[in-house]
Write a structure and sequence with these properties.
By secondary structure, this protein is α/β, with parallel strands linked by helices. It has helices at residues 16-30, 43-46, 63-75, 89-94, 96-115, 125-131, 156-166, 188-198, 216-224, 239-248, 263-270, 284-290, 300-312, 319-329, 332-345; strands spanning 2-6, 34-38, 53-58, 79-82, 119-122, 142-144, 174-179, 203-208, 231-233, 251-254, 275-278, 293-296. It has two domains: 2-148 and 331-345, Glycogen Phosphorylase B (Rossmann fold); 156-329, Rossmann fold (3-Layer(aba) Sandwich), CATH 3.40.50.2000. Strand 10, helix 11 (263-270) and strand 11 form a beta-alpha-beta unit. Helix 1 packs across helix 15 (332-345).
């Protein structure tokens, strides 16, 4: 049996989909399941995918779904679809013109892609529930597979030392970490406003994400909130620097208005760093279930409350709960096993 993953991009700067594809591939390798990844729609490479294979189409609206449907119709190769939050009604409410265009595409092609899939895989119960309210008609075989991340890399002492050596201004400070894209849906304006209003001299908010010099939204935030405000902009962190930041933080915050899963939430929990998230991060039920952090609304009052929790030190009691949440709910191996089970039952 082979599993073939189709994805629009493997660039980690584009968000959690690329990370999910890579982590799933590593999990399949660990379980001795042959697997391939394609990030370009090459017909010559995809056509020979016959026999005992399962195709995974990651995301909607792009070539992976169309290619998966073509392979199904031409060669009877089964496939599953991961929407990765692209069916969340938040986009419908905030980008009505784009939604109208997507509804037309849905009627033309995407609904057929969904209907012919062996399964449409959702990462949480919340995502599956929200997905059914966005496009019409909605007809598919729904399943919650979860998602998750791998075990964190070893080398805690080295990773933390490297991070603190690179960013010396955090020495002796209490560190709150945001890690992710700089995008309006992430609620960074609320976070920065709240932090500056409540933080004291011993507090540092680290914003770890790719900084686009051509993006007006990003540049306005960087200009307005700088080191004099207790805000550290690190740019995108990778490897040991990334894990050093996650391990060094007192808490990780994700104040999003919409977040399908939140890979960084799972990564933070994997190293025992409690999380502060809004109830628009679809993992919020799991975080509440395991008491792995705090959850509040995605408005200014809600983010203010999360910052208050962090400043008060209440998050420190959540470390072991965060690790338990990762081990029992947010590990990638569980998702890989469910996908392998789908492949074996087809």
């Amino acid at each position: 049996m082979s599993i073939v993953q189709l994805t629009h991009s493997l660039d980690l700067r584009t968000g959690g989909v690329a990370k999910a594809v890579c982590d799933l591939s590593d999990a399949f390798n660990t379980k001795k399941v042959e697997n391939l990844i394609f990030d370009k729609p090459s017909s010559k490479q995809l056509n020979p995918l016959l026999g005992n294979n399962l195709v995974i189409a990651h995301g909607l609206w792009q070539w992976p779904g169309r290619s998966a449907l073509r392979l199904k119709k031409k060669y009877d190769v089964p496939y599953i679809v991961f929407p990765h939050g692209m069916l969340d009604p938040w986009f419908k409410e905030n980008y009505p013109l784009k939604h109208l265009k997507k509804q037309i595409y849905w009627l033309w092609k995407q609904s057929s892609i969904m209907k012919n899939a062996s399964a449409v895989c959702f990462t949480t119960e919340e995502e599956m529930s929200l997905a059914q309210k966005t496009f019409w008609p909605f007809d598919c075989r729904k399943i919650v597979t979860g998602l998750g991340v791998q075990e964190p890399p070893i080398g805690e002492v080295k990773q933390k030392a490297l991070f603190k050596k690179k960013f010396t201004t955090i020495k002796g400070k209490k560190l709150l970490l945001y890690m992710g894209r700089i995008h309006p849906k992430k609620g960074l304006d609320l976070l920065l406003t709240s932090f500056v209003k409540q933080a004291k001299s011993e507090h540092v908010l680290t914003i770890a994400g790719p900084i686009n010099d051509q993006c007006g939204y990003t540049q306005k935030l960087v200009r307005t909130y700088n080191s004099s405000s207790g805000v550290l902009w690190t740019g995108m962190l990778e490897g040991d620097l990334k894990w050093g930041a996650l391990r060094s933080a007192d808490a990780m915050i994700l104040p999003s208005h919409q977040e399908n899963y939140g890979m960084v939430v799972a990564e933070a929990c994997s190293v025992g760093t409690p999380v502060l998230i809004t109830n628009k991060v679809n993992l919020y039920r799991e975080i509440l279930q395991y008491d792995a952090g705090f959850v509040d609304n995605d408005n200014q009052d809600g983010v203010d409350n999360l910052i208050k929790k962090w400043i008060s030190g209440n998050v420190q009691s959540k470390k072991l709960h965060a690790i338990n949440c990762f081990k029992e709910k947010l590990h990638i191996y569980s998702t890989a096993e469910k996908i392998i089970d789908i492949a074996n039952k087809r």
